[in-house]
Design brief:
Length: 312
Amino acid sequence: MNSQQLQNWLEDIANNHKNIEDPTVGIEDYTNFLNQLIPNTQLLIQYLTNHYNDIHLIQPIIAQILMLYYKKGAFRYFTLQLIPSFMIIYFTALSKKQKNKTILFENFFLAIYNEEILANGPGSSDMEKKVEEIRIPSISTPSIYHDPKKLGLINGDTSSLSYETEPECLFTVKIGPYQAIEKFNAENKYLVLNRLLRGINSNLSRLPPEIVGRSICILAILVTQCGFNFPENQLNSKVLGNISQLEIIENFSNRRRIPINAIFLRELICGVYFSIYNYNADFALKALESIHYRAQYEMLAEILVITEAIIH
């Protein structure tokens, strides 16, 4: 498919699936809708990946995808599943020192980010920003997450492991409110990308693993391996043995190194872990192994704790 054919396909989706715009439509309908589009969605990703140098060819396509996002409903999920693939293109351009090719994708990320941080969801007229809360149990008090007796922290009887009966034993960590961002730059780049990945991770069960699972794994391998030569496939052989049939992808070691941060890797791990069980285990394990090696190099202890727990 060429640029015009892809534009016609996106226009056809917008015109012939208006019932999917309704946010009250069931999740099963969303999933069926996205699954029907998988073959052409893969062609769309391949075309954008191969032609990102030709801005005049891909700009109309990106604009149509953004318009679909603003329709909400299943169209929002259609757009979210493409974001990891767009991040691959973005980081590919950076690794090849093609900064002028990234502006289109930076603006796209920024537009989605400023909608996703709204407290009442994308398209809301209320500009109140989202605040996310995470409840963390005290390590010395029983909860549904752990038993302190097994950790050797306390002696004697303990109460039932239920956080609902002991709310005072929980710490609440608030993330946000997220601030609107007007310009994408080096200072706020990972703030935007991390929030987008978090939104994708919270909806992984609704997105086709053939699209989002594969792209997250490639993204993880790309950002961690650019400029590095890591040992290959040790984890695959250990876990899968001879049944491993790893997909062959490009060698990124000769490219420019990509700076990363711990939160970005943590969000990638969520998607990679999902892909181990729902997409392609050998491919996802390679991505996990790459994250582990890069975390060792960067001395990111919080990431190593997670990767070690998954690996062992």
